Amino acid sequence: MADFPEKGRKRRKEARVGNEENMEKIMHREVEKQRRQEMASLYASLRSLLPLEFIQGRRSTSDQLNEAVNYINHLQRNIKDMSSKRDDLMLLSGQSFESRNEQSRNDNSNHVVIRPCLVGVEIVFSVLQTPLSSVLHVLSEYGLCVIGCISSNVNGRLIHTLQAEVNDLALVDFADLKVYLLRLP
């Protein structure tokens, strides 16, 4: 009869150890479940920030992460392009980040930057008094077809950004065009 109380204690101890192991498993499952829910929420948040063209048809998380990286790279390229354009505009308006003195701001001469772009050529033209129609007339004489124009006023100076189609870049003398545009009244 002495064995019975000892067996009962042993069973209670085994049950306690079993309950502790079960509790650890349950806790581990709960922690893992919360982690998965948080990751799903973060992926959904990331997906909501991406434009549709970057996630269209992409279902797997790894595809979405890859597209997020592509989108970030796309944004970085845009930032570099816009910084370059901003710097050009600052130069055209007679200002620079390093020196913004009054003499360069009151410069009465025209400024021209011509560079290739996807559709042909982009011309950034900074003027004080030259009408845009004069610039457009010169461009048509050079065989350029203007397809877009954005104009801004910076410190009383008009800055026109024109995009023009060019059939053959080799046929247009851009150095001559720049000189001609700089001489406009």
Automatic annotation (TrEMBL):
The keyword Cytoplasm does not apply. It is found in: Nucleus. GO terms for cellular component: RNA polymerase II transcription regulator complex. Its main location: nucleus. Residues 23-75 form the BHLH domain. Pfam families: HLH. Residues 1-21 are annotated as: Disordered. Residues 65-92 form a coiled coil. One of its GO terms (molecular function) is RNA polymerase II transcription regulatory region sequence-specific DNA binding. Keywords: Coiled coil, DNA-binding, Nucleus, Transcription, Transcription regulation. The keyword Cell inner membrane does not apply. SUPFAM superfamilies: HLH, helix-loop-helix DNA-binding domain (SSF47459). Homodimer. PANTHER family: ACHAETE-SCUTE TRANSCRIPTION FACTOR-RELATED, TRANSCRIPTION FACTOR BHLH118. This is Transcription factor bHLH118-like.
